[in-house]
Amino acid sequence: MTRRDPHDPPAMWRSLEDKADPERPSRRAQAEAHDPDGFISADAIVSRRGFLTLSGATAAAVGLSGCIRRPVENILPYSRAPEYVIPGVPMHFATVTERRGDALGLLVESHEGRPTKIEGNPDHPATEGATDVWAQASLMDLYDPDRSQRAARRDGAGNLADAGDTTAAAHQAFEEALGARLEEHDADGGAGLRLLVQPASSPSFLRLRRAVRERFPSARFHTWSPLSSSNLRQGAWLAFGLPVHVHQDFARARVILALDSDFTMTEPGAVRNQRRFANGRRLESPSDDMSRLYVVEPSPTVTGASADHRLRLPARDVGRYLKALCRELASNHGVDFGAVTGALGSPSTEGIPEKWLGAVARDLAESRGQNVVVAGSRQPPAVHALVHALNRALGNIGRTVGFTPAVDPEERDQVTDLRELAEAMGAGDVRTLIILGGNPVYDAPADLGFAESLGDIEFSVHLSMHRDETSRRCLWHVPRAHELEAWGDMRAIDGALSVQQPLIAPLWGGRSEIELLAQVAGERNWRGHSIVRRTMRESMGQGTGFERFWRRVLHAGVVPGTAVAPGGDLPIREPEIASAVRDLRDPEGALGADDLEVTFAPCPKLFDGRHANNTWLLELPDPISKICWDNAAYLSPSTAAALGVENGQMLRLSREGAEDIEVAAWVQPGQADFSIGLLLGWGRAHAGRYGDGRGFDVYPFRTSTALGFASGVSVRPGATGYLLAQTQEHGSLEGRAIAIEGTLEEYRDEPRFPKFQTVEMNIPPLWDTVDYQGHKWGMSIDLTTCTGCNACTIACQAENNIPVVGKRQVARGREMSWLRLDRYFVGEDENDPRFIMQPIGCVHCEEAPCENVCPVNATAHSPEGLNDMAYNRCIGTRYCANNCPYKVRRFNYFTFHGYLEGDGVLGGDYYGVPEVKQMQFNPNVTVRMRGVMEKCSYCVQRIQEAKIRSRRTGEPIQDDWFTSACAQACPSHAIVFGDLNDPNSEVARLRQRDRAYLLLAEVGTRPRTTHMAAVRNPNPEMNG
Amino acid sequence: MASDQTKKPDEGAEPGSPRPDYGPVALPPSKREPSEALHVEEWEVEKRPALYLAEFESARDVLHAAEKVRDEGFEHWDVHTPFPVHGMDKAMGLGQSHLGWICFFMGLIGCVGGYVMMYWMNGVDYPIIIGGKPPESIPSMIPIMFECTILLTGFGAVFGMLGLNKLPRHHHPVFYSRRFERCSDDAFFITIEAADPKFELEETKKLLKSLQPKHIELVEEEVP
Amino acid sequence: MSHDPIAEIGETHLLPPDTTFHHVTESVSRVTENKAPRGWWILFLLSLALAGCLLASLTYLVTAGVGAWGNNNPVMWAWDITNFVWWIGIGHAGTLISAILFLFRQKWRTSINRFAEAMTIFAVMCAGLFPGIHTGRPWFDYYMFPIPNQMALWPNFKSPLMWDVFAVSTYFTISLLFWYVGLIPDLATLRDRSKTAKRRAIYGAFALGWRGSNRHWRNYERAYLILAAISTPLVLSVHSVVSFDFATSVLPGWHTTIFPPYFVAGAVFSGFALVMTLLLIARTVFQMQDIVTMKHLELMNKFMLATGSLVGYAYAMEFFIAWYSGNPYEWHVFRSNRLAITVGEGGVSMAGSYWWAYWAMIFCNVLVPQTFWFKKLRTSIPWMFAASILINIGMWFERFVIIATSLHRDFLPSSWGYFSPTIIDITLYIGTIGLFGTLFLLFIRWLPMIAIAEVKGVLPHADPHHGTPGDHAPLDAYVAAESPAE
After folding, report:
1. I need a labelling partner for A990 at 20 to 30 A (CA). Which of A11, A947, B138, C129 fits?
2. pTM of the predicted structure, to 2 decimals
3. Contact B129/A at CB under 8 A
């Protein structure tokens, strides 16, 4: 998939003396010694040339060129030795990014030192070459023009003001202040010194934490992140008495029961989960087996959307359902829960369909040892504990369920942790507070009063990429380095250790958490590079061969042998579980129009709000509701009817102990009745020019006692007519054979069932059809494994310089995404439909209707059968788009690049794009101007690159040389791209597959893209 | 009044002397209101008769008159009417107009030219795969071939007509006569030009008189 | 070239029998010579203002981009092409009246053909504007012409849009020539009547020194006949080609073989309606009731009745085929997008469809003309005025229905959308009406709005054999053809 050279690249060095003694301070370091402004000044950024000088530094380290300032660190190209480095030829570097306690190994494409595209690292167990939405989009965070550029201090008026005229000066001012402060604390051993940090997955962090504690024995660390895994941890602790992370092998499980768990998208380890889940359902032939997925959840997620059976249940009833299920298994299927059995009691099954107990229980009982039960991190620890007990009782543990040690053994319940801090702050015990990352003022539970008491602290520091809500309440703000700018190390949930190597010197001279922490610890050499090397050296204990080892690690992106295969068998602590389950009371009273439930879920776009200024994600349609630029309160149709609420009507939610919030309503088929789905991460006040005031902030409604969900909510409908922009307004298939699905039985009875629903045009053509001799590119999209996670959409956007157009234009129907994910509701019951996702880009028809009608030959076929757009030839009659049956063509009604920055009256212009954002553009893809039609090009630039390589090396293009951006990103491996004329290419095989069908074949366009029908594996008993 | 017709019109042409009366003669333009003056110093130039202008009452009269003139065998003569008088061609002994042939060949050029253009551009010079169809498929060319045919035929008709009529021509002796201005309103004229071999001042005038015109006048023009 | 009307077959004089040639000359020319009446000034200033707002909105459109309109994905074409087809259709009546009626020797055309031809030319100007500016990058429009350009690429002659380019430009050129050729003798009339050297110079220049010579009339009439003969297939081809834009596509609601005749009928229909509107105004403003008589108007109403019924038939047939073909996409366009009988899971909302446009079209184009069966309405000036305007509204809606309702919900429900116009859409459309009005008012002010020479030609005493039947009977063949009595 990724371009990699067959041989291992040689060790790298900058210069001979460096090779001799890699540790000696470099010229750069010496220079800095007597050059206070030694490192990148913000002013240097302003000019493009200045930037290139900078970014060249990265390239310099791999010996691209010599005549520029060199960084201290060596970083190694993943797959290209510098002898091959040619300007214009991108290089790829392995790095890693953090995602909910897991580490995603990445491969970043860099053009002359500018990171332009992020892919998954095939060697990394967490990604296996795939990526998720946020990894793809993090480039936009790197190039966010609103990032903080200077250290800043609160002035008399209480506003943040630059602490110096240059980045360097500002930093110095801060360091002096911090140094002085810490010396004071040396005296009192750090009494009143508190650090608020993100959950740790970095060995260096753990090392430095120890170092800090050594220096300040009475200093305290607190951990907070709005989306924590605390429930998982405590559940595991309850069940096993060990700090472990529990793995589920969705590939081997035959039956999967997901309880309020979006394990393919937002739960920890989502990328690997999705890949394995897809592998468990991949159908090569009718004889293949596929897993069956039951999902119980309040609000539809992509996981629920790919379920074979989905039960809409309010989040608070999930525990009750689990107990009822266990009871059923215990009493009717002889499943032995040991001591826990008694604790189950006899839970009420009210509101739970009988088959969801009987049939599901039977299914689980019959597939003992081959199924998985998993609960979402929103559910309380007791539920998790019971799930573990259930897995144990079903004999899954050791087979489909395994364990790895938690990265941070000290990890505690974060709410308690934060509450203690807040109380201490309230009591005035905190004199110095250092906040490393995060944005607690925005996302801390409203009832802790954290934000209020933060202002009163004498000396508070916030390290963050933006001068956000938290920074504005702190004494000091320090710009934080982006993951792609800083050195670091990370442990994945399976223990795989990776080094995070920067792709580019910090654009705004930011610091990473560990660097600041090292300064607190008083380390002499606090630069990230040395920190990480030291950690690595200590933990690996590699004395002599370290350099070679280090380079191999950088090159591979993961320390070999650190990833432990999940497995092992742990005894469960039945008594503890029993008591916990006993405490798990059934919620009293039924939900209703006056007693509603709200659930808080991470936004599938902005996550917890950290991406709130990321234009790609802001405009990305929600996987289910297809809303962009906003979040909304999701209500089921019947709930909406009961409340008399319509789409876009403002709702005022109020609940005991939380302040009221106003959210626009959205009627969401598949939502549990009387349960309102709320997405976190919106309504930021100080996110930046793009994110400010977008959507609705629901954190004020989220209290420390109700982080996941809460009932007792009442709703007051307000004004109607709030505009929610959707990219897909119509959800019904209208009975058309477009996204074709069938059951496993149907598929086995008639493997070619999709072909019977479409009409293949077999009439002989009136003319000689073109015979494509050389390459014949094609794509295959498997609807069975596609979950609709959107990774492909963002990957396409990043690869092809696709602009965002803003909410108003989306509402007008002018979004530009080349690859769209169609979501259809299937079934009669509009409250409880099935979902089917269908990615559609240009299908590159061999007899393309668009080409016939273009008066200026702007769109035509290449000799390889690509339907090409000649942008500079296009005059924009839009006739092609009218005549496209798939409506995949996108038109630049304005110059959309820089449109958001413009006045919105005269359209944008390329130079309106903030310069730092221009750096993201892929130099191999034209940036389109207004008045031009555009569409999926099958990533023609990658095809050309491969052809050039083939010409250079003389060997024919191999299937694994390259693939399209969407296919490369897809964690499900649902999208496959390649050469149809290459007999052993995967896509050629898939095209012959029985499930493959041509979309709208009856129109006679002969598409190059085939879709493969979605096959569901429903339980016959459930359809009673 | 016929007697003084014997004098040559150029006799009294010396400058200053009063001109003898030849009966109604279209005065050279400069004698008109200054606003209508043509730039001619008429006393320097010598005049010669250009044509006789006979005015008739109605289309019917002029038609029958024309038949007579035709029978007299004149060649350089013409009939001027405010609108095309039906049957006048026959009355004047004129044959079919050749315009049809011009248009036919122009149309042919348009049709073939259109086809050649498209064939060469899409099929020879720069063939591209469009919708998987052959680059030079004839069916798709038919509409444009048709339009080209029409266009060139139209040009043939209009410019052919002007060519055959030797138009535009803004100077013509008939315009010296003020009466002739009513030709575009409701007057009908027959003109016999001096250029005609059978033209003779008296004879021709007699002939015209015999046709009972409303009025006769001799139009003079300068000798270039 | 006329004959006495035969009472037995209900023939009457088109013009009062006592009309003299001079009277015709006088009543037509005086319009261009006298001071313009107040009515003219009012209309002219109004049109000029509207034309100004056309200029303004064009400037904004080209500066900002096509996004200034409401067009979106999937409705990539909307008012722009609707207006284009509407205007071009209106143009057709002009050519039809001047060409086809000429070939059929319909003498009554002479009072209105100049008018109608002028209308054609100005309408085609307005129409041609839209394909020009609807492109995303109008400054590259020349790529559409078969001329070498920096791309070293030729146009794609397979595209119906290219056919349009040729059809419309040919149509404009030929109409202009036709119009001008007809004007030459009348310009000569104005030249000869002119009191000032300026008028004489200007009209004279354009009259090309026409002197009514019969040797000229001979070629002139032949040229006129040929132009008429080629304009007739041309006018049919132009709207057929325009309809190919839709008919050759794959889009349900567009992909229909009935379009060419259906479009032509509609074009003639709307064209006649506009001629009627303008004629009624001009006739009143310039008191020409004796040249444009009720007989003319009634004949035109009959024409509208006929073409209107044709259009109605086309609607019905289109609908029937959509159902009969069993093509679900096609049927959906008619059932849900147009009729808006909303069935189907997921609930197609009434608001999402264009039922109002469809029913407005049916009312104006099918029902309104049917009233012309009744002589009372056929001869009532107020009603025919109202009807002519309603019909043009209806014809605009027809094009809108064809374009927008087919586009906004086609094959894949996921890409369905809805179009709503912006202010620029509206100002541009109104603006073209202003442009048309301005040009037209200038025309009736400065050029003979009635074909003087041709009207004279059909006066009874224009016939050299007037009152002497039998004499030269063969030359008068068409009289026999018209009235078996002879």
Report:
1. A947
2. 0.88
3. yes
Rounded CA separation C28/A815 (Å): 58
- In the numeric block, the tokens 């936009």 are attached to A140
Residue C66: C-alpha distances to residues A638, A811, B31, C403, C404 (Å): 42, 16, 64, 17, 17
Chain C residues near residue B169 by CB distance under 8 angstroms: 208-209
Of B58, B122, B184, the CB nearest to C212: B184
Look up the ipTM and state it.
0.86
* Mean local confidence (pLDDT), B124-135: 90
Q: State how far the Cα of B43 lies from the Cα of B28, in Å rounded to an integer.
A: 10
Q: Does B117 contact chain C (CB < 8 Å)? A: yes
* pLDDT at residue A73, rounded to an integer: 57
Is A856 close to C153, i.e. CB distance below 8 A?
yes
Q: Which of these, B170, B186, B160, B172, lies nearest to B78 by C-alpha position?
A: B172
Give the helix/strand (H/E) hosting A615: helix A615-619
The residues that bridge with A531 in the sheet, in sequence order, are none
Position A558 pLDDT exceeds 70: yes
Counting beta carbons within 10 angstroms of the beta carbon of residue A621, is it exposed (0 to 12), middle (13 to 18) or buried (19 or more)? buried
The percentage of residues in chain C with a pLDDT greater than 90, rounded to a whole number, is 61
Q: Which two tokens stand for residue B179?
A: 């009466």
**Closest CA of chain A from C138, distance in Å:** 7
In the three-class reduction of DSSP (H, G, I as helix; E, B as strand; rest coil), residue A344 is classed as helix
Angle (CA) A505 A509 A510, round 5°: 100
Mutate to test the interface with C, among A829, A852, A882, A1011 (most CBs of C within 10 A): A882
Asked if residues C80 and C127 have their Cβ atoms less than 8 Å apart, the reply is no
Amino acid, res. A651: L
CA-to-CA distance for C450 and A79, rounded, in angstroms?
83
In the beta sheet, which residues pair with residue A92?
A: A109
Place of tokens 């085939």: A1010
Q: How is residue A207 written in tokens?
A: 């090392």
Q: pLDDT averaged over chain B?
A: 81
CB distance A895–C65 less than 8 Å? yes
Measured distance CA(A563)–CA(C390) in Å, rounded = 78
Backbone angles phi, psi at B75, to 5 degrees: -110, -50
CB atoms inside a 10 Å sphere around CB C60: 17
Q: Which of A58-62, A424-428, A711-715 bottoms out in mean pLDDT, i.e. has the lowest?
A: A58-62
Question: Do the chains contact at B131 and A851, CB–CB below 8 Å?
Answer: yes
Residue C346: HSE in the Cβ half-sphere, 13 Å Cα cutoff: 20
Distance CA A966, CA B203 (A): 101
Q: What is the mean pLDDT of residues A26-38?
A: 39
Contact list, B130 vs chain A (CB under 8 Å): 851-852, 857, 860-861
The first and second tokens of residue A700, run together, are 């004020």
Distance CA A93, CA A108 (A): 5
Q: How far is CA A908 from CA A725, A798, A890, A928, A931, in A?
A: 20, 19, 17, 12, 12
As beta bridge partners, residue A825 has A732, A835
Tell whether the model's pLDDT for residue C332 goes beyond 80: yes
Residue type, C265: A
Single-letter code of the amino acid located at B89 = D
Q: Which letter does DSSP use for residue C484 in this model? A: T
DSSP for A511-578, written as a single string: B-HHHHHHHHHT-SS--HHHHHHHHHHHHH---TTHHHHHHHHHHHSS-TT-PPPSB------HHHHH
User: Which amino acid is residue A816, in one-letter code?
Assistant: M
Strand partners for A477? A152, A462
Contacts of residue A400, defined as CB under 8 A and 6 or more positions apart, other chains included, come to A248, A249, A252, A253, A369, A370, A371, A372, A391
Enumerate the residues of chain B whose CB falls inside 8 A of the CB of residue C162.
Answer: 144
Picking from A646, A822, A877, A1003 by the largest number of C CB atoms within 10 A of its own CB, the best residue to mutate is A877
